[in-house]
Write a structure and sequence with these properties.
Elements lengths: L1 E2 L11 H9 L5 E6 L4 E6 L6 H12 L9 E4 L2 E8 L2 E7 L5 H18 L6 H6 L1 H11 E2 L2 E2 L4 H4 L3 E2 L11 H12 L15 E14 L5 E15 L5 E6 L7 H6 L9 E4 L5 H7 L2 E3 L4 E10 L7 E9 L4 E10 L6 E10 L4 E9 L3 E5 L4 E10 L3 E10 L13 E8 L8 E7 L7 E15 L2
Parallel strand pairs: 10-25
Antiparallel strand pairs: 1-9, 2-3, 2-6, 4-5, 5-6, 7-8, 10-11, 11-15, 12-14, 12-24, 13-15, 16-17, 17-22, 18-21, 18-23, 19-22, 20-21, 23-25
Length: 454
């Protein structure tokens, strides 16, 4: 374990960060506990939560397996905020009136840091093998109960382990860069990044959740989306990102553009986004981290476009025979083609055999393990309509229980289509060298919980 000299330890990253820290009550201690209630790691930043209170928490909550029910526990005036990751329970304790959501965020970021150091895994064995490294990390990421540096890329530059590549400890320029990154405004991006070709990629990925009734009425529809960015830009660029938000687009803009405005119900940003700018003009302004990161996640519940229309039918052909038919229509444009389309048409439990009578496109067969007719279509062009007709033979049973029909489920990928209608209006990149980056934007809609009752 090596720590680079000359690197200031645990200083607030900026004036605004300092104000946030002061408003955030202190974490008294951090513990890592196994499922037996044994303490693996105990790092105390204040001494107001005693070991007796910790042991009471371990005995009452962890060992008694009550930790999943109540993530926040209070024992003798001490508050224990905990989350379980595999066979390890991470706990933060305090006696102050603390921001619980922020503490959970710190615990989740700690897990990300540990996984970055342990090769993507985090369990009790890793904790026991690397307890010295964990104590050093806990000293760096939290100072006197206040969260500080929680970026694994920054920590890895001066806290290394084993044969990991470290910086040259005699290179004052490298040490100066680490100092600026660790204590500066942009801890997520280092200075001096250079690319021969400056490019930025934006992926808008949406999961559409739709539930249709047997009468073809929409019961539920919402979209959960994320915007992923791959940044290969030199220097310290400032990016401005805009989308067709109803609150931004004026009536004139909406009249000129064929794109409709969207209304975001919920959204969450990466820490690089300047929230004050977004609150004022609804523009997403940020200095991006280098590489791939999640810029924002969002949820939309209004004006959801269904990419497919299903028309199912079930007919009794006798006591032991059923006819299942399904007509699927693609509702998106002709120049768009869906891929990896998979439709599960459930069958009764006493189904003995399933025969495909007619299929327009793709392949279908009865799969006993799934208890359904599985219809797979590799490519589904827009505005096309396909039908599948199957006949099912039922085995004789002693019980005459009525078949409770599960819904038809569907999986698909539709590129260059968004069910919410979200579109990127602009992406501006400003940097002091005034280069012009190449910008790439892709859209993808996937099936979340896509169901149609029969």
């Amino acid at each position: 374990l090596k720590v680079a000299p000359g690197v200031p330890r645990r200083r607030p990253q900026s004036a605004s960060h300092f104000r946030v820290v002061r408003a955030f009550a202190m974490i008294s201690s951090i513990l890592l506990i196994n499922l037996k209630g044994e303490i693996l790691i105990w790092r105390a930043y204040k001494d107001n939560v005693s070991r007796i209170e910790w042991q009471a928490f371990c005995n009452r909550v962890v060992a008694a397996k009550e930790s999943r029910d109540k993530p926040v526990q209070s024992i003798n005036g001490a508050h224990f905020i905990h989350t379980m990751q595999g066979d390890v329970v991470l706990v933060a304790a305090t006696k102050d009136n603390i921001n619980v959501v922020l503490v959970f965020k710190v615990l989740y970021k700690l897990v990300e840091v540990f996984k970055a150091y342990f090769g993507g895994s985090f369990d009790e064995n890793q904790v026991r093998k690397n307890f010295v490294l964990i104590y050093e990390l806990l000293d760096e990421v939290i100072d006197y109960g206040y969260p500080q540096i929680l970026e694994a890329d920054v920590l890895k530059k001066y806290i290394t382990q084993g044969g990991a590549k470290s910086i040259d400890l005699n290179d004052q320029e490298q040490l100066k860069k680490i100092t600026v990154q660790a204590t500066g405004v942009c801890s997520w991006r280092a200075e001096g990044i250079k690319y021969r070709k400056n490019e930025v990629y934006i992926d808008v990925v949406e999961s559409v959740n739709i539930l249709m009734s047997a009468k073809r009425e929409r019961l539920r529809a919402d979209v959960s989306g994320q915007i992923l960015v791959k940044c290969q830009l030199s220097g310290m660029p400032e990016c401005k990102f805009g989308m067709n938000d109803k609150l931004v687009m004026s009536s004139t803009d909406r009249a000129r553009s064929a794109e409709k405005g969207i209304a975001l119900d919920d959204y969450r940003f990466h820490q690089c986004v300047r929230l004050s700018k977004f609150d004022m003009d609804r523009e997403i302004t940020f200095i991006p981290p280098d590489g791939v990161f999640e810029l924002m996640t969002y949820r939309i519940t209004e004006n959801i476009e269904s990419p497919f229309k299903l028309l199912p039918s079930v007919k009794m052909l006798g006591r032991n025979r059923l006819e299942l038919s399904l007509q699927v229509t693609a509702m998106y444009d002709r120049n768009i083609t869906a891929t990896n389309v998979k439709i599960d048409f459930p069958c009764p439990r006493n189904t003995a055999r399933g025969n495909i009578q007619k299929i327009d496109h793709g392949r279908a067969r009865f799969e006993p393990a799934q208890g359904a007719i599985i219809w797979r279509i590799r490519r589904f062009p827009g505005r096309h309509e396909y039908t599948c007709l199957a006949e099912v033979e039922l085995a004789s049973s002693f019980t005459d229980k009525q078949w409770v029909k599960p819904p038809i489920t569907m999986n698909f990928d539709v590129p260059q289509f968004t069910a919410s209608g979200l579109r990127v209006r602009f992406l501006k990149v400003q940097e002091k060298s005034n280069y012009r980056p190449v910008k790439w934007i892709r859209y993808l809609t996937r099936a979340g919980s896509y169901q149609h009752r029969i």
